[in-house]
Design brief:
Number of strands of chain A: 18
Strand content of chain B: 25-35%
Oligomer: heterotrimer
CATH topology of the largest domain in chain A: FAD/NAD(P)-binding domain
CATH superfamily of the largest domain in chain A: FAD/NAD(P)-binding domain
Helix content of chain B: 10-25%
Radius of gyration of chain B: 24 Å
Number of helices of chain A: 11
CATH class of one domain in chain B: Alpha Beta
Chains: A alpha/beta (419), B alpha/beta (491), C mainly alpha (115)
Strand content of chain A: 25-35%
Distance between the termini of chain A: 40 Å
CATH superfamily of one domain in chain B: FAD/NAD(P)-binding domain
Order of helices and strands of chain A: EHEEHEHEHEEHEEEHEHEEEEHEEEHHH
CATH topology of one domain in chain B: FAD/NAD(P)-binding domain
Number of strands of chain B: 27
Shape of chain A: globular
């Protein structure tokens, strides 16, 4: 490892790796990507793999149209299968108000060139006959949306970036920054043993908020640090997802985004029967069939306190099973094989926080993606690389900058958020 | 339908590969315990098989892939099928290699079939009754003969799905992906909506998970102290590994066979007022409770103290073709035999324990030919295109091949740390045993005050010491009394 | 003889595949799990976890200090049995007194049920 890099990227999730790959493609190969765990340990390895352009804001729609194109070509471009399958996204609404909103969004999507169409309950059954459509007010369907197997995206980006000269250091954590008041001068890093309990999993194995006396304080071994060292960088890009506020805090920067646990479960693998990803806007239920045949999905659970927590809960299991069996009654004897949790990275106006930070001129953020970070990363990586390479601020980056919160210019919220 | 025992040797029939066994061979799979007992008038085998008392078992009719078969009422379907000479029930997900029962205790995927309308049902757990309809899965056209087996031969070492057809352009990649989707999955969506009973919440002082020797002892101690105890085990009987043991045990000074000992402990628990749930699998533990699934409903159990005594997983270990139908854990062979089914006519046993000796003797009384490994020999691999037809053993004198139609492989036992782990007990490596254990302190205590681990699930320690159960139960009882004092009345 | 040695029967992961993943640099057990797919099938690792951990030790010289994260459930659970759970689990821990009042229809003490 070198002492100095042109760019250091914190977080080797899909966002950081996509940015690193696109930087290298532009000729900036003097890049170090660090992650405190293994690849796929964070939200990039824990999401449901949905990729869609059906959103309610034009920015999201246009970005995701582009991202879908990238996903379609990813396997042959990057030489690793990601099992992208365009089975469409089928959104269900169960109230007049939500139906009106869906109709407006579908109109905007059509104007942006999507093939979205509105469906009645009966028409829903022509796409998924197994769905009980009782109570469904209106649905929308875009056949170009789809699902992927998330993990190979990371391996694909990592391998391609490394082949171009990017360095990747997993099991390497940021412990602090040195600054000269205006900019970061160096990062203090710690490399830990990779056969001990991985950092991401500590959050999964420890009880939420300690839970008082149940958990003795000496529990859970700390990971042994093998080596401490520092590196300097011209630009530091933070792609740490739900951990971004913690990173920024080391620089005395307060971010408005908060981690929020979302849980997913996966069933036994079945022969293909479900084409689209089905999403119910009334309760946040969503489910799709993976490349291996499992039904993978989640649901909104209230209340879940903000904070890093990757423990599984019975409340989720109960809510999800109830919502899914109501929607597809024949799934009642289908069995759950695995349940897990990851963290959404929520912002007050449901839009990401991207670009340079006022007051720390070489610190660039890419966080607050509201649980859509994975699907946006293929296109956002390119924009981030362009932003860092050219030092120009596009309209998108101006719109999504952190300063909007200080200035009170919050964006119009995105209504099509699930899970 | 126990058969009359014909002349010894008359039923030894070489098995044909890839086809159904002959009817004589099918008959040979059913063991007449009376014959075993007759040959072993005084020994423990007589006691075990007297205790199994299968002579009066009722028969029923089931169907497998449309074929009518006889079965014994209440026996695991996997045994009904084995008794009828059927050991290949599905094909594996990628290679389409044949799959059959392996553990016979609900821990592996070998016996997954569609039972009535339910896909992916473990045939070693589901029970036989009149009219049950079983279908093989993931096989074209049948589990015995599957044309997609070519996948196994096309990829002789492994199947690199990450890089499959990524170099031939998007069009070909797309064709591969659509084909892969069609091939994916095991079983098909049920056609009807099942309506199980509503979940039941249970509150108690102590939940004991696993009723092997450790769990039985602990549940009894806690109940004797006046605590309200709920005890669950995923098996239909108590005893854990002792249920399949072919050894003597002592109960109140009297010599009894292992399965009888287990049931005496069960009777004791019930007499003490312990709420015992059998066939009830603790599936998941959360901060606030434990989810137990029975054959009919979910139980949500909240306890002041949770004790995990859920023992070990078992597998057959790593050797070539270790997944072929006809390869069982040694315990599965014993379990099938106790329930009146001989897994093969020529059986290789690779273990070297007292249990292996007893099992070899019992099998030989059923007219099976039994092969044993010689000192220093290890199992290098199994042979067979469909199910097992032989084994290769390597020893100090070189390699030798043994013909056999079943292998009972030495149990590879590893602690089942997962449930305690979900409850917050850190699993740690045991470098000497090369496995992971639920990490515990003295007297079964863990870093979670309300969680205890006992028996083989935990790190090595106090279960081998005298009165270990009294030491653990003392700390469980103390915790329950303390929390009861804090929150008021006992549950 | 030449045949496959299956480390993970549920997902058809061979010894060769695990060795290949380790050679590619996936040396920690969570990465090997993700790259090969072992422990992600029906048994969720009951059979294969130890087999793979021992191969990692053979190839890297170190037995993993911790296993893959044990995630619920340990045994597959039918969705239909879980669908009614919302009525018996609550997000807050309630007192003993409240619990009896709230959940009367579904609360059993475990006695008198079929064993």
């Amino acid at each position: 490892m070198k002492k100095h890099y042109r760019v250091v990227i914190i977080g080797a999730g899909i966002m950081g790796l996509s940015a690193a790959y696109h930087l290298a493609r532009r000729g900036i190969t003097d890049v170090l990507v660090i992650d405190r765990g293994y690849l796929c340990g964070g939200a990039s390895g824990r999401n449901g793999g949905g990729v869609r352009a059906q959103f309610s804001s034009e920015t999201n729609i246009r970005l995701m149209r582009e991202s879908i194109e990238i996903c379609r070509d990813f396997a042959t471009e990057m030489k690793i299968n990601v099992w992208f399958r365009q089975g469409g996204y089928l959104f269900l609404t169960r109230s007049k108000a939500q139906a009106a909103q869906l109709e407006a969004s579908a109109g905007l999507q059509k104007r942006c060139g999507l093939a979205t169409r509105l469906l009645s309950g009966r028409e829903v059954q022509s796409i998924v006959p197994e769905i009980d459509t009782q109570g469904v007010e209106l649905a929308s369907f875009n056949p170009d949306d789809g699902v992927v197997f998330p993990w190979p995206f990371l391996w694909g980006y990592a391998q391609a970036a490394e082949a171009l000269g990017v360095e990747l250091a997993t099991f390497t954590e940021v412990e602090g920054f040195a600054t000269d008041g205006k900019r970061i001068t160096s990062l203090a890093l710690a490399r830990t043993a990779h056969d001990a309990l991985a950092a991401h999993d500590r959050a999964e194995r420890t009880s939420a908020h300690g839970r008082g006396p149940q958990l003795a304080p000496e529990s859970h071994t700390e990971r042994p640090v093998q080596e401490r060292f520092s590196v300097s960088a011209e630009t530091v890009l933070c792609c740490a997802g739900a951990w971004s506020p913690n990173i920024a805090k080391m620089l005395d920067i307060s971010l408005p985004n908060v981690p929020h646990r979302h849980e997913i479960c996966s069933t036994e693998p079945l022969k293909p029967w479900l084409g689209p990803l089905v999403a119910d806007l009334s309760n946040g239920l969503y489910f799709s069939q993976s490349a291996r045949g499992e039904i993978v999905g989640g649901v909104s659970v209230e209340p879940v306190p903000h904070g890093i927590n990757q423990r599984s809960s019975v409340q989720f299991l109960a809510t999800y099973a109830q919502a899914l069996v109501r929607t597809v009654p024949s799934m009642a004897s289908v069995k759950v094989l695995r349940q897990w949790a990851g963290c959404y990275d929520l912002t007050p106006d449901q839009s990401p926080i991207v670009g340079r930070v006022d007051g720390c001129e070489n610190f660039v953020l890419a966080c607050g993606f509201m649980g859509h970070g994975f699907m946006m990363a293929p296109v956002m990586g390119r924009h981030l690389a362009e932003h860092i390479a050219t030092e120009e601020t596009s309209a998108l980056f101006a719109q999504w900058n952190l300063r909007r919160f200080a200035e009170g210019n919050l964006l119009k919220s995105e209504s099509m958020i699930i899970g | 339908m126990p058969t009359d025992h014909s002349a010894p040797g008359a039923l030894r029939i070489a098995r044909t590969r890839g086809t159904m066994r002959t009817s004589d061979d099918m008959t040979a799979r059913r063991v007449d315990h009376r014959a075993v007992r007759a040959q072993h008038p005084e020994g423990v085998l007589r006691a075990v098989y007297d205790y199994a008392a299968l002579d009066s078992a009722q028969t029923c009719g089931i169907r497998y892939d449309g074929r009518a078969l006889d079965a014994r009422v209440g026996e695991p379907l996997a045994l009904s099928l084995l008794a009828n000479g059927i050991d290949t029930l599905s094909r594996s997900v990628k290679f389409h290699r044949p799959r059959g029962p392996m553990c016979l205790r609900g821990n592996c995927e070998g016996c997954l079939t569609r039972v009535d309308d339910d896909p992916n049902t473990m045939a070693c757990v589901a029970r036989a009754h009149d009219g049950r309809e079983i279908r093989s899965q993931n096989a074209f056209p049948s589990a015995e003969l599957d044309v997609l087996r070519i996948t196994d031969w096309f990829f002789p070492k492994s199947f690199d799905h990450h890089h499959l057809m990524v170099r031939y352009g998007p069009a070909i990649n797309q064709v591969m992906q659509s084909f892969a989707r069609k091939m994916a999955g095991l079983g098909t969506l049920p056609t009807r909506a099942s309506e199980p009973m509503a979940p039941l919440a249970m509150d108690c002082d102590v939940l004991v998970v696993g009723l092997g020797p450790a769990g039985l002892a602990l549940a009894a101690q806690c109940a004797q102290a006046g605590l309200k105890v709920v005890a669950v085990d995923e098996e239909p009987d108590v005893g854990g590994f002792l249920r399949d043991s072919l050894q003597w045990h002592t109960h109140e000074g009297a010599r009894v066979c292992a399965p009888a000992w287990c049931d005496l402990q069960l009777a004791k628990l019930r007499a003490l007022g312990v709420s015992v749930r059998l066939g009830a699998a603790a599936c998941a533990t959360f901060d606030d409770g434990t989810l137990v699934i029975t054959g009919e409903r979910a139980l949500w159990v909240r306890a002041r103290a949770r004790v995990f005594a859920n023992g070990s997983h078992e597998s057959v270990g790593n050797f070539e073709n270790n997944d072929l139908p006809g390869i069982y854990t040694e315990r599965a062979v014993a379990r099938a035999l106790r329930q009146g089914v001989r897994v093969g006519a020529t059986v290789l046993l690779t273990g070297g324990s007292d249990e292996t000796d007893a099992l070899a003797l019992a099998l030989s009384h059923t007219d099976a030919t039994v092969h044993r490994v010689q000192p220093g020999e290890t199992l290098r691999g199994a042979k067979g295109m469909g199910d097992v037809s032989g084994a290769v053993l390597v020893g100090p004198k070189g390699e030798r091949t043994v013909s056999c139609d079943a292998i009972g492989a030495e149990n590879v036992r590893t602690p089942a740390f997962e449930l305690a782990g979900q409850a917050g007990v850190e699993p740690r490596a045991s470098l000497t045993r090369r496995c992971f254990v639920a990490h515990s302190h003295e007297a079964g205590r863990t870093e979670r005050r309300d969680v205890f681990v006992v028996g083989s699930v935990r790190s090595e320690g106090d279960t081998r010491e005298p009165d270990w159960d009294a030491t653990v139960s003392a700390s469980v009882i103390a915790l329950c009394k303390e929390t009861a004092a804090q929150t008021g009345a006992s549950r | 003889m030449s045949g496959k040695t299956l480390l993970c029967r549920c997902e058809d992961v061979t010894l060769d595949e695990v060795e290949h993943a380790i050679a590619k640099g996936h040396t920690d057990i969570e990465s090997v799990k993700r790259f090969t797919g072992f422990a992600t099938g029906w048994c969720q690792g009951k059979q294969c976890l130890i087999a793979c951990a021992r191969v990692i030790e053979d190839k890297t010289g170190a037995f993993p200090l911790a296993p893959i994260t044990p995630r619920p459930p340990v045994h597959p659970m039918p969705l239909g049995m879980l669908a009614g759970l919302a009525n018996v689990v609550s997000t807050e821990r309630v007192t003993h007194h409240e619990r009896g009042a709230v959940r009367k229809p579904n609360v059993g003490n475990g006695e008198g049920e079929s064993q």
